[in-house]
Amino acid sequence: MNILILGSGGREHAFAWKLSQSPSCDKLFVAPGNAGTAQVATNLPISYNDFSAVADAVRSNDISLLIVGPEEPLVNGVVDYIRQQPDLADLRIVGPDAQGAQLEGSKDFSKQFMTRYGIPTASSQTFTAATLNEGLAYLEKHSLPIVLKADGLAAGKGVIIAETVADAKKAFNDMLDGNKFGDAGSKVVVEQFLRGIELSVFVLSDGVNYKILPEAKDYKRIGEGDTGLNTGGMGAVSPVVFATDTFLRKVEEKVVKPTLAGLLKEGIQYKGFIFIGLMKVNGEPYVIEYNARMGDPETEVVLPRLQTDFVELMAAAAEGTLDKITMQVSPQTAVTTVVVSGGYPDAYEKGKIILDLERLEDVTAFHAGTLANGDQVLTNGGRVLAITAQANSLENAVRKSQEAARMVQFEGKQYRKDIGLDLIRYAD
């Protein structure tokens, strides 16, 4: 079949890399793609938020399966738009409609959803500019630290953890009164801080049936030891040593099943990925957030471990036949180290020449922010490459990924040198 992926990051390169391995994949397109996707697919120079252009690309390339990578087009309603085209109404799509994508598009919606269906999460309250003074009074009585979340999409930067009431009040005012996150911050969710250890579980749903994909742990802060500013993700590991079978069974019973049952009860036929950000607190799972798509860079460690034909898996999700698929997962450990531009996550320069990619062996370099320029590959984003290694032990996977991250070169290159080390210590 002919397949179109929407997106341009490391997640979409990982999708394209995995799909291209299937004998069921005839022609593969990515819109707009990057220098990495161009190696395994045809890039289409269209924006994934230009729904009319997406629909035209589906028609002109005889696409029979559409996979939506990023959250923004999902929240903006790309699936709804395609479904409204009479000639495309039956197109197979992996990705929820706008109603389902509210799980990520609105923190307030997701918190209320979890409360309605008894899904364990931190206690919270939501405020708007109209209730700013009530919110400030609420903060004064809140336990520390205080978590503040912009309600809408804020490119992974809409969460602030305030250590003092004064810091919380400043952040709260900046969001609601100072328009710090624009429309995304028109509502602010104030949340209890949970002490525990984080991981992510990924669910693929066909609207009724589901498959739980390999779990992963990502590293969000720019600096070693989880210090500095939040980023889109500096690395990831799968499997996660503290995600025991007992704990994952609790996740399935207390989180996955009630989430999918709740979606059905609300009339949402959810066909796509649900990323469940979890905190393990005293052996129990608590949901920090939902995302309506796969995580990045977690995708770059999850997909390499999948041994099931990825085209068959995606088609089954779109067709409602996931119950017919038996999923196979490699026991190997996958580790990805994200190599980023100098200055990221603040201001950074693009257009730096990337050298020594051809020297990398026994790893997969997933392109996140890259651009092909003749024979050269240039940096074209904050997160540039996600370099994934697989091995029979966590230590070896870490070593291989880190060695490759050291080897690749461009001006201003940064990467974290402690990805996975906390899990090695945890296992010890």
Write the layout of secondary structure elements.
Layout (H helix, E strand, L loop, with lengths): L2 E5 L2 H10 L8 E5 L9 E2 L7 H10 L4 E4 L2 H6 L1 H6 L8 E3 L3 H8 L1 H10 L7 E5 L3 H9 L5 E5 L8 E4 L2 H12 L10 E6 L4 E10 L3 E3 L4 E2 L2 E3 L3 E4 L4 E4 L6 H21 L5 E11 L2 E8 L7 H4 L7 H10 L13 E8 L23 E4 L2 E4 L2 E4 L3 E9 L2 H14 L13 H7 L1
Q: Kindly report the average pLDDT value.
A: 95
Coarse morphology: globular
Question: Remind me, CATH topology of the largest domain?
Answer: D-amino Acid Aminotransferase, Chain A, domain 1
Query: Which structural class fits the helix and strand makeup?
Result: alpha+beta
Give the CATH level 1 class of the largest domain: Alpha Beta
The separation of the N and C termini measures: 47 Å
The main sheet comes to: 5 strands, parallel
- Kindly state the percentage of residues in helix: 25-40%
Strand content: 25-35%
CATH superfamily of the largest domain: ATP-grasp fold, B domain
User: How many helices in DSSP terms?
Assistant: 13
Number of individual domains = 3
Instruction: Extract low-pLDDT stretches.
Output: none
Using the 3D structure, state the CATH architecture of the largest domain. 2-Layer Sandwich
- Write down the Rg: 21 Å
Looking at this protein, list some descriptive labels:
5-stranded antiparallel beta sheet; Rossmann fold; globular; 5-stranded parallel beta sheet; alpha+beta; ATP-binding; PRibGlycinamide_synth_C-dom; Dna Ligase, domain 1; phosphoribosylamine-glycine ligase activity; 3 domains; ligase; 428 residues; D-amino Acid Aminotransferase, Chain A, domain 1
